[in-house]
Design goal:
This protein is of the alpha+beta class. It has 13 helices and nine strands. Helices cover about 70% and strands about 10% of the residues. The longest helix has about 70 residues, at about 115-185. The two termini are about 60 Å apart.
């Protein structure tokens, strides 16, 4: 009995003086503490998949603006210029066109608008598609929230398992020291020492792998969030307990707020509007059009224009003289003296130059035009009927999709609620198992100290405690995962 007491004292002294592996290693620098709320906030701002889903909002908004623009006139403008060589064109022996090179500019403004029943329904369909897009974005946000939450829980669980392995490593070191002490005083065997050394070595490997896995899970967490990993980041293990919510309340909440279900309902509304738009092909449509245009031109050779005007003036003067001379010979009254007044003056030359200098900004407006047209298609080869049938099928399919999603949401919420209840009950049972396994391990350690059991029995007791504690850790985080699955099924946070 004295030998056993001496062995116990020696083992306790060795256990107190020998540092553990965790204590021998230098402690890493403290990093920032990231809570689950912080992780979710970072993911909403940085997750690439979520950002890509959010970009669809701009496309949907542009589609609504385009559909609204159908109620506004479409305005087109044109501005063109041209050059024509100064050469006459002959048609059937007749010469047409000027012999002077010519520059011309044309400008026009036109507006048109077409109104029909389809125009109104197309806008409402675009608004329904926009609502569906917003619901899809909310679904993507909930999906990212679920992924980040699950990965956060996985990282926390890996850290808890690593802490457990470090604790078990300290236990195996103590057992090895006790085995060595017993062997030194002659109450143990070399086989017990070797078995304790093997158990301690295996536990060192398990502890090393557990810490490595915890680090890997944190890296995966940052990848899921969408940001580079932060060195030595710490996770907050103080997670709030899931609130108690009745299943009927959760089901009603899911039916009204589930984003995926809202997306299907919005697409059903879009399909209904598309069907109404197709039926509107039997009704008349109104088309309105307005147009105004103007032109300006100039000849490149101003001197030629002046020469032509001078020639024309001399020709007019000669014609006047000949005509008035004939009247004078016949004894009729005449204006022969006035013919001399017909001459090409400097003012006329200045007017020609000024007219050419106004190009290209002095436009001459053409007559404007307005038109309104009512059109009613009578027969188009049953294409309207085909379109109506296609939109009717799309609407019925959309209704079936809504009903299928409602059933899916009901099943997912119910299953997640049942899983949460089961996980909570499992935690209670696993905690009882851990308490029992911890007591059994303490008794085994005491019995081993006094030589009542072998090292094999002690290792087995430690293994039972490890399995029980591992199962308890798994059960604790399974509760959080089940609650996250319930939130994902409902489509919104529940706390």
């Amino acid at each position: 009995m004295r030998i056993h007491a001496f062995a116990i004292a020696l083992g306790l002294a060795a256990a107190g003086s020998a540092p553990t592996l965790a204590a021998a290693q230098p402690a890493p620098a403290a990093g920032p503490v990231i809570t689950l709320t912080d992780a979710l906030g970072l993911a909403r701002r940085n997750n690439p998949a979520l950002q890509s889903s959010t970009n669809a909002r701009r496309t949907a908004a542009a589609a609504v603006r385009s559909a609204t623009g159908a109620f506004l006139p479409s305005v087109n403008t044109s501005l063109g210029g041209g050059y024509r060589e100064g050469r006459q064109t002959f048609f059937q022996g007749q010469a047409f066109g000027a012999v002077n090179d010519q520059l011309n500019t044309d400008a026009s403004v036109s507006a048109s608008m077409q109104l029909s029943v389809a125009t109104l329904n197309d806008r409402r369909a675009a608004q329904a598609d926009q609502n569906a897009t917003e619901a899809d974005i909310a679904t993507a946000e909930q999906r990212v929230r679920n992924d980040v939450t699950n990965q956060y829980l996985t990282a926390l669980q890996a850290q808890a398992r690593a802490s457990l392995q470090d604790t078990l490593q300290a236990t195996t070191q103590t057992q090895l020291q006790l085995a060595q002490a017993r062997f030194q005083v002659g109450s143990g065997t070399q086989l017990d020492v070797q078995r304790a050394e093997v158990a301690d070595g295996q536990q060192r490997v398990a502890s090393l792998n557990a810490r490595n896995q915890a680090a890997i899970e944190i890296v995966r967490l940052f990848h899921t969030i969408g940001v580079p990993p932060t060195p030595n980041a710490k996770l907050d293990a103080n997670l709030a307990a899931p609130p108690a919510i009745e299943l009927s309340v959760i089901l009603e909440m899911a039916r009204s707020t589930n984003p995926a279900l809202g997306s299907f309902r919005a697409r059903e509304e879009s399909a209904r509007r598309s069907q109404a738009s197709a039926r509107g092909a039997y009704l008349p449509s109104l088309s309105l059009q307005a147009n105004v245009s103007a032109f300006t031109n100039r000849f490149t050779n101003t001197g030629l224009l002046i020469s032509q005007s001078q020639v024309s003036t001399l020709s007019a003067q000669s014609s006047c003289v000949r005509s008035e001379e004939v009247r004078d010979r016949l004894g009729l009254t005449n204006r022969l003296s006035q013919c001399s007044a017909i001459s090409f003056t400097p003012a006329q030359e200045a007017a020609i130059r000024d007219a050419q200098a106004k190009y290209p900004l002095d436009f001459t407006r053409n007559p404007y035009s307005l038109s309104a047209t009512f059109s009613l298609p009578v027969f188009n080869g049953w294409r309207r009927e085909q379109q109506i049938e296609q939109t009717s099928v799309q609407r019925r399919n959309a209704e079936n999709d809504v009903r299928a999603q409602e059933l899916r949401v009901n099943a997912d919420v119910t299953a997640a609620s049942l899983s949460l209840n089961t996980a909570q009950q499992t935690v209670v049972l696993q905690e009882q198992n851990v308490r029992t396994a911890r007591i059994a391990l303490s008794l085994a350690q005491e019995r081993y100290r006094v030589g009542a059991i072998s090292i094999v029995d002690l290792v087995q007791a430690r293994g039972d405690y490890e399995r029980a504690e591992t199962d308890r850790i798994t059960a604790v985080y399974d509760v959080q995962r089940a609650f996250a699955a319930l939130e994902n099924a409902v489509g919104r946070p529940l706390r």
